[in-house]
Amino acid sequence: MAAEMLVVQELNKTFATPTGDVIALNRIGLQVKQGEFITIIGPSGCGKSTLLKIVAGLDTRYEGTVLLNGKPIDGPSIEKGFIFQEPRLFPWLTVEKNIAANLSLRKPEVRKRVDELIELVRLKGFEQSYPRELSGGMAQRVAIARALLRSPDILLLDEPFGALDAFTRSHMQEVLLDIWQKNRTTMLFVTHDLDEAVFLGERVVIMNPRPGHIRHILPINLPYPRKRSGNAFQELRHRVLSEFEKVEGPDIDEGAGI
Amino acid sequence: MQQAETKRVVPGHIRAEKRRQPSRFSIQSVNLLLGVLLPVILLAVWQIAGMMGKLNPTLLPTPGVIVQEFVSLAASGELLRHLGVSTWRAVLGFLLGGGLGLAAGLWVGFSYKTERLIDPSLQMLRTLPHLAVAPLFILWFGFDETSKILLIAKGAFFPLYVNTFLGIRSVDGKLFDVARVLQFSRWQMISKLVLPASLPNIFLGMRLSIGVAWLGLVVAEMMGSSSGIGFLINDARYFSITSVVFVGIIVFALVGKLTDSLVKLLERRLLRWQDSYKGGDAS
To answer: What pLDDT sits at residue A19?
Structure first.
């Protein structure tokens, strides 16, 4: 397939705390191809969100190389769509205006794309609703549409479905796979849910804490749509889990297992 | 799955309307009745006590007498003339003070350095009472309109300043990250994030400012003036025509309530998105 679009090499990140420096990321190396779906899983404190924030350009204090399309990352931009754990919608804007945000809906091309995206994230009929009228899953879909409108090269998702109930979460995972298969947007998806990581990713990046490092990168060679109940799925799930059982106190969410 | 979710989350406005429609009229009229209940009882007791000769008419004329006075003042055109002058002063003072307060609030709100530079001085000036500075204003600007309008403006400045400042500083920091990721320009950060987010505070400031503008007006007109509702009250007090004093007070109350309602109406239209607590027993 296409060339590496995201290259991370020898990435180190240290937080200064009153009790001394804490190494958050230790010699991280990761290469992501155009159109790939990568999930990153690890217990809290393993630095997975920190890694994502660095790729997003929200955190620029690090050592090492991070290249997107061959260029170093020097700040946030619309090429790197970011989905936060919470939807973070503008409460004073309706759904369609939230998706458009700083773009004008009066422009015919914006209007057209927004309508398409509302269809894509299955929010037809809610264009004029305010965020307070939406459920958590719907609000997160608005946030996804808002990022997609900017046609990002890569979509960075920071535990986007963590706050949703099990049913809504599995629905959202299907919506996201649907979007990925239609748009072929490169996805970097951080989660602490074992099931979610194996269900979504073409490769699962397994991270461990103290200091945050990549323990293993596991390819998931299962065709989409994946069956959670299948033997192959369960076996891969166990392999990911076994990477954590080697460290003490894994607070990994084993997933709802639906 | 999709269906289950949509069923659970019918847009709020539709849901609310459905619930309200059959009994909408009766609930509104009940609310209105509740609101007037207390004043009506009070007025009735007052009127009856006055007619029985229990009240000194110079100190406390009956509601009937006050209404008669009101009608005669209104009919002669005198009331409207005074009200016109007062309104003009209040509006001008409010626009001047409120406008500057909004501008200063925005300026200080956006810049930490400006805050350090001018907020301490402004906070010191804020606590100065009208009555303390009125003599100075008169000395500096004379008895004519300038001193009055400036006194009103001084009052109207601070509520808008403080609340605009507070509004800007309480914008959710998480939304700034969103704006950065979406590559908002500096101007878009202000117009599409900070201003809408601080609008509830700005409205609160505006309502308080208008209230203070009316207060300042009374002080200004009572200090020395030959027209306006404040003058009407002061003049009547001098000649012990208590009923006119009451008429003036009532006019102040009515106009104050009216302007407040207008701002509230505007607020409701512009802040429809707000999802706030409206009181536990609101229907």
So the answer is: 84
